[in-house]
Amino acid sequence: MTETIKQYLDEKKGVATVMAARALNVPERDVVRALDEQSFEVSVSRFNEIMDDISEWGEILMIVSNGSVICEVSGGLPKGSYSHGMFNLHSDTSSIGGHLMAHKFDSIHFVSRPFMGRESLSVQVYDKDGNAAFKIHVGRDEKYELKQDQVAKFHALKKRMMQ
C-alpha cells in the first residue's frame, strides 16, 4: 500500500494528508509514514518532552479534525499535566485548552511538507487507529511567513528526538 500512497502523493502534489487518506481509504498515519524524508516518526513515549518543549514556542496553530470538522486554534500551548487519566491543557491566557487522552496515542511525527504552496512545519500526533489526534503547526507572522524563531525551535526539537 505504501507504493500506492507514494504514487498518489506524487500525482496530487500538495494534497492534504487527510484528504489523501480519505481518497485512498487508509489511516492518515499511513500517508504521513509514506512521506519519507518529509516525515520523521518519534515514539509516543517522548510525548511529555515534546509537549513541554512546544509550550515554550509562543503562539502556534493547533488543528484538530474529525470526519466532519477541521478546527484551527491559535495561541500559546499551555504546559500540560496529568489528572483523571488525561493530559490536561489549561491556561487563563491561551485560547488552547482541553483534555487529551494520551493513553490512546500511538505515534508522533515531525512533518516538513509544503502546503498550499508554502513551507509548513508541524508536529502531528496519531492515535492507535492511525487517525490524527491533533497537529501543532509552527506559527506564522503578519506576512504569513513561518516564525523563524519557531522554525529553529522545531528543528532543534526534531534533532533532539533523532538522538
Question: Care to describe what's here?
Answer:
- The chain is of the alpha+beta class.
- Helix content is 29%, strand content 31%.
- It has 5 helices and 9 strands, in the order αααβαββββββββα.
- The strands form 2 sheets. It has a 6-stranded antiparallel β-sheet. Strands 4-5-6 form a 3-stranded antiparallel β-sheet, covered by helices on one side.
- Strand 8 and strand 9 form a beta hairpin.
- It is globular, with a radius of gyration of 15 Å.
- The model has no long low-confidence stretch (mean pLDDT 94).
List keywords for this structure.
163 residues, alpha+beta, three-stranded antiparallel sheet, 5 helices, 29% helix
Number of helices: 5
Number of strands: 9
Q: How would you sum up the global shape?
A: globular
Oligomer: single chain
The end-to-end span amounts to 29 Å
Class by helix and strand content? alpha+beta
Which value, in Å, is the CA radius of gyration? 15 Å
Give the SSE string: HHHEHEEEEEEEEH
Provide the low-confidence segments as ranges: none
Order the strands across the largest sheet as they lie in space.
1-7-8-9-2-3
Residue share in β-strands:
25-35%
Report the sheet with the most strands, covering strand number, pairing sense and barrel closure.
6 strands, antiparallel
- Mean pLDDT level: 94
* Helical percentage: 25-40%
Topology:
Blueprint lengths: L1 H10 L5 H8 L3 H6 L5 E5 L3 H8 L4 E7 L4 E7 L3 E4 L2 E4 L8 E3 L4 E8 L8 E7 L4 E6 L10 H15 L1
Antiparallel strand pairs: 1-7, 2-3, 2-9, 4-5, 5-6, 7-8, 8-9
Compose a concise summary of this entry.
The chain is an alpha+beta fold and 163 residues long. It has helices spanning 2-11, 17-24, 28-33, 47-54, 148-162, and strands at 39-43, 59-65, 70-76, 80-83, 86-89, 98-100, 105-112, 121-127, 132-137. The model has no long low-confidence stretch (mean pLDDT 94).
